[in-house]
Amino acid sequence: MTSWKALSLPPSDHELSPYTGYTRAHWEAVADHWVNVALSYASPRFSLFRIPGRHAWSGPESDALEGFARSFLIAAPRIAGGGDPHGFAEKYASGLVAGTERGGSEGWLWAVDCVEPLTGKTQPIVEAAGIAYALHISRAQIWDRLKPAERDQIADWLSHHARRIAWANNWLLFTAVIEAFLASAGYDTSAYDGRANVRRVESWYTGQGWYTDGSRRNFDYYNAWVIHPLLWAIHDMLPARDPDAAWLWENRLGRYLESYGHLFGGNGSPLIQGRSIIYRTATLAPIWLGQLTGRTPLSPGASRRLASGTLKHFVDHGVGVDGPLSLGWHADQYLDVTQPYSGPGSPYWAGIGFHGLALPADHPVWTAVEEPQPAETGDHVVDLDATGWLISSTSGDEITRVYNHGADHNTAGTPDDDPLYVKYAYSTHTAPGTGPAFAANVDGAFVLLDGEPSRRGPIVRHRVRGPVAGSTCVPREGASLTSVSIVQGPFEVRCHLLATDAATGVREGSWAVAGEDAVPYGLTGGVAWARRADGLTAALLPVHGYERAETIARADGNVLGAHMSTPAAFGQAEGVSAHVALHFLGRSDDVTVLASTMSTAARISVDGTAVRVEWRDGQTVTVDLDTFIG
């Protein structure tokens, strides 16, 4: 039998926190509630958390370990920060001992190497890493108080996982962080591969503080909730092992935060992009690490405003308010944004974003008055060539947009068909269509319509310079495509140069505006639009190479609501052809005014493969689609 009361928060403090009203007390209240709800599903000795929900492919025993390990990520900074009113330390210490007893009734799984064909489960490697990370944060309150025999028993289980062969992606840091914890606790790890694994991950550095998750174009939040936090933990636990590497990482964290802080909307939502987005507040880990290390361009007040805004966004949308964290984005379960490895305990990786609670209550990040986060300090365009992204944020509507010309998460030379990676644009206020909606492939896509809608195809090359980003791909055999985004404020001129060996219809899709109710849409002055009741609006104006525009509505396939409407343009192509459209994502009170604004936002001309854009303020950009990327 499980029981809990709904989340109760302290009164808002708008003097200290004029933007969010949230203080450290709010963070403590949420942490306590989320952990207590998870604990209500724990086994008698607290090692297995059987949280209800769809099981991951690793099965229920792995899921039960995951519930313990990941909720420990929330409990650990709460314990370390000087307060443990619910006795979390005692319960998690008990779980550590019970889980690592060989043959015990509450014992944990022991992972196998990540080598095909698998002979067992590999997921415990991840959970062992989370436990090592949490033990480091709460070392004085938990590890140091265990009996020597208990520490040895736990170390035996951790050592088994530190020695495992990990998948060649962020998993290399899981074994490395376990090894680092063991070494910091005085155990012999001289035969382990931790240092080699760190060097392998460092070889995937692409610049501007960003890493690819593996050797391909895998740019996503794994930078935020695995790579940077675990590199911090490794260097923090073993500062004398490689001080040069630690210094290098700290500088990279600072570079990372220069762009990363722009990926959060003024509404508190992180960018909706990439796998495992059910981890939600885990996106905040590097924000806290910036304050911990001092390597951040963000002030303490801006850092807390960003972090608290994100926590508040999810709490306001019901996440963890009256039950366990769901397999979704907001409160409801939405399995189309999960992966087969996601189980009921998976969302609790959110806890790595609670690291700020490990900082003392008198740290400036908790005492400074909130200041605007990057998306609120004006309109910004951030050139992120390291990932092939162009980030645009506008303070008037609080929206952050990312124009994607670098991430595709391709793993085998063919598209992975993942809507969270292959779209031309993502934002903090819209989400890509999933499931049946992704099969139709309307939003955020340029497709060939000779049969089934084509896919974007793996990105071959990209380039980002100033307000312009572009990429090349092969959408199908016999065709090649160069795509370029020219951006200002809420507008994007999206250009395509298509070379095809056969005549084909083409379709350009804009942003998908989603809601629980049907999203109104229409065609006004040649502009296709979709406008939600709160004013969030997507619009598309065909400029060149299209014959008509319309908005396509669906009643399935979006994590932000049951209904979605997407403006689109249609045309024909044969041989080499250019296709240009003006896109808008922002807020609008009147679609007639919006249509007029769209028609005068820019003067756009196309001459062969050259596109010239003169914005209303006089700024002019000319791009040759044939040569821009090279």
From TrEMBL:
Q: What is this protein called?
A: DUF2264 domain-containing protein
**UniProt-listed Pfam families:** DUF2264
The lineage, from the top, is: Bacteria, Bacillati, Actinomycetota, Actinomycetes, Micromonosporales
- Organism of origin is Actinorhabdospora filicis
Superkingdom, natural source: Bacteria
DUF2264 domain mapped to chain residues: 23-372
